[in-house]
Amino acid sequence: MKDMTTGGPAPSAEDMKLIKKFLEDTTLFLGPDPEIMQNHDLMPRSADEEHAIANVPDTHTIAKIRDRLQAGCDEGYEMVEQMGAAPGAKWGDVITGIYSASGDLAIASAGGVLLFSSVVHHPIKFIVKNWMNEPTVGVRDGDGFIHNDSRYGNVHNTDQSMILPIFHEGRLVCWVASTVHEGENGAIEPGGMPSMAESPSDEGLKMSPFKVVENYQIKRDLLTFLQNSVREPKLQLEDMKVKLFACLRIKQRIEETLKTDGADALISTLRLTMEDVRAEVKRRVSEWPDMSVRTYIIQDSTLRENCVVKVNCTLTKKGDQLTFDFRGSSPEFTNRATNTILGGLKGMLSQLFLCYIWPDLPRGQAAMAPIEVITDPHSILNCSYDAPNSQSLMSIFTGFTAGQHAVAKFLYSCPEKFTKVHAPAFNMINTFIWGGVSQHGETLGNLCADLNGMGAGATSNRDGEHALAPIFATMADIGEQEVNEEDVPFLQLVSKKMTRDAIAPGKYRGGQGYTMMVATKDSEQWGFMTTAQGAKIPPIQGLFGGYACGTYPLSKVQGVDVYDVMLNEPEKFRHSIEEIMNEQPFEGARYTTHHMGMGFDISKRGELYMISQGAGAGYGDLLERDPVGVVKDIEEGLMSAEVAARLYKVVFDPATLAIDFEATEKARADERKARIARSVPYAEFVKGWNQPKPPAHLPYFGCWGDDVETLYMGSPDKTRRGDEPKPNYMVHPKDVRIAELEARLAAAGVPGDEKQ
Amino acid sequence: MTMKVPMTEYLRIDLETEKWECRVCDHVIAPAAGNYKEGLLVHNRDPREIHPPVIDPAKYRYTFCPDPEWVRILEFCCPKCGTQIETEYATPGHPPLWDMQVDVPALKAQWASRGPAMLPDAGPAVVPGRGHAH
Ligand SMILES: [Zn+2]
Fold first, then answer.
1. What CA–CA distance (Å, rounded) separates A37 from A103?
2. Could you tell me which residue ranges the Hydantoinase B/oxoprolinase domain spans (chain A) (predicted)?
């Protein structure tokens, strides 16, 4: 309050009370509340909770009730998954849970997207803080609240929550909520995650938490307004109902518990479950070595242009305290959509622990609660209210990978492990987002569930599995393509076929990704977009001498109708990107490659869009890979014989693939010698390699080397301090291209006689 | 007896000498309180050699190869046995990271209370005939 009192006596306590009341009564706008949004720890014990724990401290009773409530949450989850209209619901991009009266997520559904477990509590805390005692709103039995604006909680605006308070004998005892990745939300591009958004105003529906249900009925006027704001009015209605009914089912299970055990037992169970998990996390962390681990992951685009965007991470463990320090990461982009709110990053770190490190822990907010996360303000990992964040996945996924890479280096020496030490999984949603008018005349906007087929990283004892699971969910399906094709006017002409030589080598190799080729068939108003990074720089790191994946572009073939080709000259069709792009079998067609940030592109019948899923990272020195495993990879079409022989130094008969083990041993011993010969001592190496600033030829964003306080903003001469926000505008890629072409015209001597 | 704590697939710390050592050939690499990379050899690898082009680089801008002007692979190997101990996908010119900065006194205290029976069971190699089993 220092600056308020300059030039006069300090206000009395009475004055301060008056000032506080005045400010509270006259708040112009209840925007996102930093006090809520920056905090992911548990709320302090309430008087109700103290009282309940004193009454019901018995761990057996609590375990019994916890299991019942867990079953109720899982039942609600099943309902959403089975009945939900959103493709996201069908593959488990869902969370259902029970929250304490103060808003902490105590028990969550076990499957699905655990990333939600650290972010869905924020809107409830907003309701508790602002609507409970607000005479024009209030919180009553039978009410339901809706929310989607990520600045008030959740991951991105495509996720919608339905939130119900649960009362017992007139007292609020807990909350239940159901959250689904709905897809369409009325943004400038279909599907709910526009990469073209240049401000929050381009991101569609922005629902701060508000009451949309009274007496368990959805209010028709508000529903109509929401339907009118999105491209899929049917989806909006169906899933609001589905979420409401899932919440009511969980409510029913809670009421059964209240009837048998009473409110104190419920409240005590919710609170102690969280406190026990929090304490157990502290204990597990204390078993790790005291150490700082450093890593960085590069995002190679904003989805609009290629650039070098650093996610910088130092993970420090001391005693029972674990701290992720992401300072030095790229500044936020003022007009690009790849920024994230801080909660999203914490959610993905929570996912890391609940899915990859301690999968035995009860699901909820508590696992992440004691872990500290530090970021720069207005950075790509903690963006401001005014920055778009509809493609925050790019930043939360690369942030996750930095965490996954760092954690592995702590776990190796730790005697107590709950999973195998794991190299980073692939982390990009290499899939097609689609939209337009279907063959049935319906307006649709959503995506192929193939994003869930990310290649797994290798572990300390085996290869990564192919196209296994998305990093943001424990169990998620890649969908039934033939079923999808009933509803959408395009086919996946090649699907689930591994992309040969797109590898992540190691003693244990990463799990590989598959090729997707799509072409529109039965609509003149249909298009695709892709939103992924990693076409120039791999988005992950390898582990303990293993390699990361390579890079993955978008390939297009235009000026052809492949459906005509398949009808009239089927022998011309090819089933891999490699063959189609290298052989160019369709005469007169145009073959091009692009980075993976394709804005919504209206397609023509039979034109090909081709991408590949990515590989998880490799583990260990590739010269230690079992030669039998190498040959198996050749036989399974993961790798060509030439690449296998050159990299792995396995000697085999090219015709029969029979391995010469002795020659292999010798070739590998020679390669180890060759390594020593071609490498230089560290001190000598850094003399030639280290540069004081980012290279001038790279549009580089973030810190350089050890100086985490200076953030570069696209060139070696443009910087900001980490703690001093500055705008960071990118030029429209078309303007960049026009400038390049104008420069070429000028250089070619074309007179610049245009009037200015 | 001296205790050696395996810290990665190929590195361990000798708690008595306080040194990083190679788990494959026992080479003493560097002080445990420092950056183990300082005791290794480094090679600046063109990423196209590891991640080969799937489509023709003569025809296309993007080929499934990382762009060698945008990223390099720093390969760190043991100077004695040549085992590749670490890789780092690095922006050209970016100083290599001190990736594992260990609090050695804390590590010693932690293992003093644990004893050698607790050492994690994960060996360095699976090559047949090398006489190592998990
Ligand atoms: Zn060695």
1. 13
2. 59-621
Cβ contact A647–B99 (<8 Å):
no
* SS3 label, residue A93: coil
Judged by a CB distance cut-off of 8 A, whether residue B21 touches chain A is no
Name the phi and psi angles at A311, rounded to 5. -110, 110
Counting Cβ atoms within 10 Å, is residue A413 exposed (0-12), middle (13-18) or buried (19+)? buried
**Cα of A465 to ligand 1 centre, how many Å?**
29
Give the one of A294, A546, A553 whose C-beta lies nearest to B64's C-beta. Answer: A553
Per-residue pLDDT at A169: 95
Residue A384 and residue A674: Cα distance in Å, rounded?
51
Decide: A456 and A510 in contact? Cβ < 8 Å.
yes
The encoded tokens of residue A608 equal 């090909």
Chain B residues with CB-CB distance to A421 below 8 A:
122
CB of A547 within 8 Å of a chain B CB? The answer is yes
Name the residue ranges covered by the structural domains of chain A: 46-283, 287-419+719-756, 432-634
**Contact of A539 with A297, CB cutoff 8 Å:** yes
Whether A554 and A609 have beta carbons less than 8 Å apart is answered as yes
For the segment A624-671, what is each residue's pLDDT rounded down to a tens digit?
999 999 999 999 999 999 999 999 999 999 999 999 999 999 999 999
What gap in Å lies between CA A344 and CA A325, rounded to an integer?
15
Retrieve residue A268's tokens. Answer: 């005590």
The span from the CA of B118 to the CA of B116, in Å, is: 5
Q: What is the pLDDT of residue A87?
A: 81
Question: Is residue A574 less than 8 Å (CB to CB) from chain B?
Answer: no
Tokens describing residue A234? 């049917």
Q: How far apart are CA A657 and CA A663, in angstroms?
A: 14
Q: Note the pLDDT tens digit of each residue in A46-60.
A: 999 999 999 999 999
Task: Supply the DSSP symbol for A188.
Answer: S
A270 close to A365: Cβ distance less than 8 angstroms: no
Other Cβ atoms less than 10 A from the Cβ of A158: the count is 29
Q: CA A235 → CA A111, A442, A638, distances in Å?
A: 23, 11, 39
Region at A689 (left for phi over 0; alpha for psi -120 to 50; beta for the rest): alpha
Quick one: CA torsion of A468, A471, A473, A479, rounded to 10 degrees? -40
The amino acid sitting at A244 is L
Q: Are A704 and A713 in contact (CB under 8 A)?
A: no
Strand pairing report for A306-318 and A700-704: parallel
